[in-house]
Amino acid sequence: MKLTITQPDDWHLHVRDGEFMSAVLPFTAARFARAVIMPNLQPPVTSVAAALSYRERVIAAADAAGFTPLMTLYLTPSTSVETIEQAAACPHIIGVKWYPAGATTHSDQGVSDISDCLHVVEAMSELSLPLLIHGEVTDPEVDIFDRESRFVTSTLEPLLQRVPELRVVLEHITTADSAQFVQDAGPNVAATITPQHLQLNRTAMFQGGLRPHHYCLPVLKREYHRRRLVEVATSGDPKFFLGTDSAPHLRKDKESACGCAGVFSAHAGIELYAEVFDNAGALDRLEGFASLHGAAFYGLDRNSGTLTLERRAWQVPDVYRVGADELVPFRAGTKIAWRVHTSEGEH
Ligand code: DOR
Ligand code: ZN
Predict the structure, then answer these.
(1) Which residues contact 71 (CB under 8 A, 6 or more apart)?
(2) Which among 51, 76, 118, 179 is least buried, having the fewest CB atoms inside 10 angstroms?
(3) Which atom of ligand 1 lies nearest, measured to the CA of 99?
(4) Rounded distance from Cα 245 to ligand 1 centre (Å)
(5) What pTM was computed for the model?
């Protein structure tokens, strides 16, 4: 069975930099026309100049004609309204990413209390520049499984009450609560959903032993939440769209006494969603989720090309090489039911 869709976009992606980027980015560029490139490098991408220089490096590493990176800025306590104005005027910058300080990988320079940046957020609202949010509270007293739902009630709701027109993408949602919040919010609020949060529940982190490659942030949640995410992703609601949050870390940094958070999924960035939509009997809605809803939210044209998927299983390698190091992909050593169809019949 084959399925041809408008070429999809990845609305949330980490590609790192340098040699690491050269190893991972071709996977994305082979599948997606565009990707929103996260700014959590070290040091983070905080200026338009830094974003434009990163963009040049991304284009060079993509190794594919026609791949378009959509850049983001990293919000810090010292981000100025002037920077927001420059970002809004720059056609290559699509939004500003807010990491609550300490919430996740390379988030220490983020913003703890968004009220401290209200003038910047108001400028974003006026200029219609979206705020892309890692939605977790960072209070160590709050149980890690509750941090996203707490964020929605304690932080996101009040923020949208103060700045109601702000365009918000609640990134990588993991709970029924977030799904409901986004459904009920105005058309200025949308969400991305990752393949791992559609395919796995939190038990997968402990299946027969500790599974560091299933650890990401926000952390996987209960089966009840996973099912709800599948429901909204496959519902046809344009508020929900594809964002892999593919977040590569070297094997040695994942398989460690204090392993890094992040699941690498770019090697199967569309195939994994095809499996989910197929299992839900909703293949006819994959194109909306993967190729149409995100572009509509961001006010961009649809891609003109197409991508053909085929239901023909392939085995995910145990590891990919990054120089002398290894990277363990999502679903390593297992079979994925869908592949990208090419004229040679390879994926
Ligand atoms: O698991 C994650 N990894 N979550 C994030 O928010 C960041 C990401 C990364 O950059 O590794
Ligand atoms: Zn991310």
Answers:
(1) 37, 39, 45, 51, 52, 54, 55, 92, 93, 94
(2) 118
(3) 6
(4) 7
(5) 0.97
pLDDT at 344: 58
151-169 pLDDT per residue, tens:
999 999 999 999 999 999 9
Collect residues with CB below 5 Å from ion ligand 2. Answer: 245
Options 139, 143, 245, 278, the catalytic residue: 245
d(CA 178, CA 173): 6
User: Do the strands 314-315 and 306-310 form a parallel or antiparallel pair, or are they unpaired?
Assistant: unpaired
Q: Which ligand lies nearest the alpha carbon of 15?
A: 1
Decide: 9 and 35 in contact? Cβ < 8 Å: yes
DSSP string, 307-337: EEEE---EEPPS-EEETTEEEPPTTTTSEES
**Which protein residue's CA is at the shortest distance from atom 2 of ligand 1?**
262
CATH number for 8-304 (one of 2.40.110.10, 3.40.190.10, 3.20.20.140, 3.40.50.790): it is: 3.20.20.140
10 in catalytic set: no
Question: Diameter of the chain by CA atoms?
Answer: 55
